[in-house]
Structures are given as C-alpha cells and as structure tokens.
Design goal:
The protein is an alpha+beta fold and about 260 residues long. The protein has one domain: Acetoacetate decarboxylase-like. Helices cover about 15% and strands about 40% of the residues. It has six helices and 14 strands. A seven-stranded mixed β-barrel has the order 1-3-5-6-11-12-14. The two termini are about 30 Å apart.
Length: about 260
C-alpha cells in the first residue's frame, strides 16, 4: 500500500486528470470543533509560501491544533446519499501566513499545514491518492469528545507517523486576553484571526506546494471560550520549547465545511 501511495506515475496521472476535470467539491457538517493555539518561536516554523510571510509578534508565531468530528464527509454531488458516508475524526496542525501586502492581524490569514491526522484508513488512503493538499497521518487511536461542559482529545500514533496529543479542556469565563495582548487588538480579534480562513497551503509528498480554497462560515457569536483542564502532552510542540500551559482555547459547536477547489501553486 505504501508503494502505491508513493507512486509518482499515479500522482502524475491524477494531476493530469484534475487539470481537465477539477476535483469535485467536498462537504461535511463539522461538529465538536476545538482550537488549541500556542506561540512558537519563529525559528521553528517552515519557510512561508511565495508572496506570503508568517504572522510574527515578538519573534513568535501562532500554531494551532484544530480537532473536530466530520459529519458525513464526502462529495457534494452525492446529495442525500452523503448521509450514508462515515464521520471520521480529524486534527489539523497548522501555522498562519498573511500576504506580503497585508497588515498584520487586519485580514484573514491563510494556514500552512504542518500535520494532518485522521482516524479513518479509507479517508487517509483516499486523501493521499487524490489530493496534494491533504496528506493525512493515520492514528492508531484517536478520541475526541468535547461538548458544552468540556472534554478531551487523545491521539496515539502507535507505529505510525501521526503526532501524539493528550489534552483536556473545560469552559472558561472568557477568552484568554493575556495570550492575545500586543499581537491583536483584543482576544476576540485573535479568535477571529485563528478561526476564519478561506484557503490553506500544504506541501505535497513530492515537495510541490498545493493551495486549497475552503468555505468555513463560523458563527462567531456561538464560539465558547475554553481553558485547559489538565497538563497537555504533545511531544511535537514540546520539542520546539513551547509552554504548553499557555494555550488559547475555544470551541465551535458546529459549522458547515466545504472544500471548494485545490491546485498546485
């Protein structure tokens, strides 16, 4: 299977096909969405895409682990039959970039994927075969259950390449204003910056840069502030010297998600 996923001829054929027939739009009724964000020293970040720069404040840049449950993720063309499709768990680990000509914090950023994790082997294989932008890692164990009273996320890589994570959250009285101080006008602007995007960059398996346009109409009034309920375990971030206790956390109960298009840059 790994040899098939890494087949250059198959990738070339798929890219040739999608130049003629665009990748069909994908939709999902996403729910249990949790954003966990930290400040990371910019020296740990990858180079930004051409025409963009990392969002930086005092030598640090935001990094977010966004985890959620899909709602019957699949092609929009399936119509009501999409209700028969599974609803996998997914976690997107990402940096934030802004256009070179944009003012910091004033416009919606684009995200630059670092890692993507999923709990469905079918979706993982399908994404790796048919997408340049989404190359997910399959977790050996993946739990994510978060509601109005809080919850937890657990990602165990097993023998695979997925990053490990253990986090618990609970409701907070308000967004963490201290986390946003200086970099944003207030905590609400920070939340908007971290949550509202219309595009994402990713590096394909062969090093090519891919750009995906998405539609994610988050109702900001429904966002619920969260705080950590226990110490976070995340070796990937710990290796970058991140203070894991200093997190900016919030929950979006549900949001319709649509992958509009994908192309190589």
């Amino acid at each position: 299977m790994q040899r098939l996923l890494a087949c250059r001829h198959l990738t070339a054929a798929r890219r040739a096909l999608t130049r003629v027939l665009p990748v069909p739009a994908l939709i999902s009724d996403v729910r249990e969405v949790v954003y966990l964000s930290w400040w990371v020293e910019v020296r740990h970040a990858p180079p930004p895409p051409p025409g963009h720069r990392l969002f930086v404040h005092d030598g640090r840049t935001p990094y977010t682990i966004l985890t959620y449950r899909h709602g019957h993720f699949g092609p929009a063309l399936a119509g009501p039959l999409r209700g028969l499709l599974p609803s996998p768990l997914q976690s997107n680990w990402r940096w934030y970039v802004v256009r070179d000509d944009a003012a910091d914090g004033a416009t919606a950023p684009r995200v630059l994927f670092d890692r993507n994790v999923i709990d469905s082997a079918v979706h993982a294989v399908g994404a790796r075969l048919w997408s340049d932008a989404m190359q997910p890692h399959l977790a050996a164990r993946f739990e994510h259950a978060v509601g109005a009273d809080g919850g937890h996320t657990l990602i165990v890589p097993g023998q695979g390449s997925a990053p490990a994570l253990q986090a618990q959250v609970r409701p907070a009285a308000g967004l963490a204003a201290a986390w946003a101080a200086g970099a944003f006008a207030d905590a609400r602007q920070a939340m908007t910056f971290l949550a509202c995007q219309e595009a994402a960059f990713a590096v394909a398996a062969d090093g090519r840069l891919a750009l995906t346009h998405i539609d994610l109409p988050i109702a900001l009034a429904e966002v619920q502030p969260l705080q950590l309920a226990a110490a976070v375990a995340c070796p990937h971030l710990a290796a970058m010297g991140v203070d894991l206790a200093d997190a900016f956390c919030f929950r979006v109960p549900q949001v319709p998600f649509r992958v509009v298009s994908e192309r190589l840059v």
